Amino acid sequence: MTQAEPLSTADDALVIAGRRYASRLLVGSGKYRDLEQTRLATEASGAEIITVAIRRVNIGQNPSEPNLLDVVPPSRYTILPNTAGCYTADDAVRTCRLARELLDGHTLVKLEVLADPKTLYPDVIGTLAAAEILVKDGFEVMVYCSDDPVLAKRLEEIGCVAVMPLAAPIGSGLGIQNRYNLLAIIENAKVPIIIDAGVGTASDAAIAMELGCDGVLMNTAIAEARNPVLMASAMKHAIIAGREAKLAGRMPMRRYASASSPITGVIG
User: Fold this and answer.
1) Which of the residues 110, 118, 136, 236 is marked catalytic?
2) Cβ–Cβ contacts within 10 Å for residue 209, how many?
C-alpha cells in the first residue's frame, strides 16, 4: 500500500482583487526602531502585502526625510496604503486619494475610520460611508471593521474586496476574543476575511487561521516584541501551520480518552 501524499498549501493562494499571494500574513510598517529593523522584520515575515499609514509615514511626501519605500520597495511588495488616524469618512477618502497620487494610480487601499483615540474601535457609520464613496471612485477597498456579521456582509455587498474584522482592540495583544462572531462572518463571506487587530503572539495567529480566516494582518505584535525579527519569523510559521491544520481537519473532540493503540484484534 502506498502512503497518501501529504496535503500541501503550495497552490493555496490568497486572492485579493484578482491577485494571488503565497503568504497569508500581512504586516504593518510602523513602530519599529528604525527603517533597517523594518526591512529585516518584513523580510523575516515572508509577507507580500505591507500596510503603510499615509498620514504618519513618508513615502515621498517629504523628499528630505528617509523614505519607507527604500526598504520595502513596490517592486518587491504590494504596498497597502491605510487611513490610520482618520476619524471621519471625508478624511479617509481624502487620504486614499492622496495615496493614489503618491503611488502612481495605485487603487488597493486599507480603509480605517476610527471612532475614538482610546480604543481605536471603528466608526461603523463613517466606515460604511467612506467605503461606498471609495468603491464608486474605483478603489479596491480592504476594510477594517468591528466583529459584527451584519456589518461585514454589508461591506462585502458594497463591493469591498476584503473584510478585516478585529479580534480584539488594536494594539492590545489580547488574542482572539470573539471566535463565534468571527465564525459567523467567515461562514457567510464570499470575499477574504482577514483578522486585523488583537493578535499578540504566534499561537493567536495560528488560532485565527484554524478558525478559517483567510489571513492575518499585524504590526504591534511584531514591532513591540523583544526581538521583532524573530517574532516576524514565528508569525510566518504560525500562519502556515494554522492554515495547514484548517485544511487537514482536526480530530473530533471527545469527553473521554480514546486509546492511541486499541487492544481489539491484538493476538493473545
Assistant:
1) 110
2) 24
Query: Residues with Cβ < 8 Å from 155, sequence gap 6 or more?
Result: 127, 128, 131, 143, 145, 163
For residue 215, the Cα-to-chain-centroid distance in whole angstroms is: 5
Q: What are phi and psi of 121, to 5 degrees?
A: -65, 150
Reported in sequence order, the residue ranges of 24-159 that DSSP labels E, i.e. its strands, are 25-28, 49-53, 78-82, 108-111, 140-145
Note the Cα 56 to chain centre separation in Å: 19
pTM of this structure = 0.89
Per the structure block, which three cell numbers stand in for 183? 465564525
**DSSP per residue, 133-157:** HHHHTT-EEEEEE-S-HHHHHHHHH
Could you read off the pLDDT of 211-253 as tens digits, one per residue?
999 999 999 999 999 999 999 999 999 999 999 999 999 999 8
Please tell me the number of Cα atoms within 13 Å of 256 on its side-chain side: 1
246 is catalytic: no
* Cβ proximity of 107 and 53 under 8 Å: no
